[in-house]
Design goal:
Blueprint (H helix, E strand, L loop, with lengths): L2 E4 L5 E3 L5 E3 L7 E3 L2 E3 L6 E5 L12 H11 L12
Antiparallel strand pairs: 1-2, 1-6, 3-4, 4-5
């Protein structure tokens, strides 16, 4: 969730997905989901934002290399006698 502070009225506004939140002063700092709007955006301070999560790998580099090599193998077609 995003969190901003309006410098005009010192109100902290926390965003909520699907719901619009506003500070209520003449600057009208508003958050809806991940969008921020205001009359003057220079009067807004972002307190936090979305942090990207670090990818936690289950497979090691050797396993990934083996999977890539395996993926590039050709499929052998076998001929069978049909009786």
């Amino acid at each position: 969730m995003l969190k901003i502070r309006c410098k005009e009225c010192n109100t902290e506004v926390t965003g909520h997905p699907g719901q619009s939140k506003s500070c209520g002063c003449s600057n009208m700092a508003t958050i809806k989901g991940d969008k921020i709007s205001a009359v003057d955006l220079s009067k807004i301070v972002m307190l936090n934002s979305y942090a990207q999560k670090e990818s936690t790998r289950v497979l090691t580099n050797e396993d990934i290399r083996w999977q890539e090599e395996r993926r590039q193998r050709k499929v052998r077609k076998l001929d069978f006698e049909i009786r």
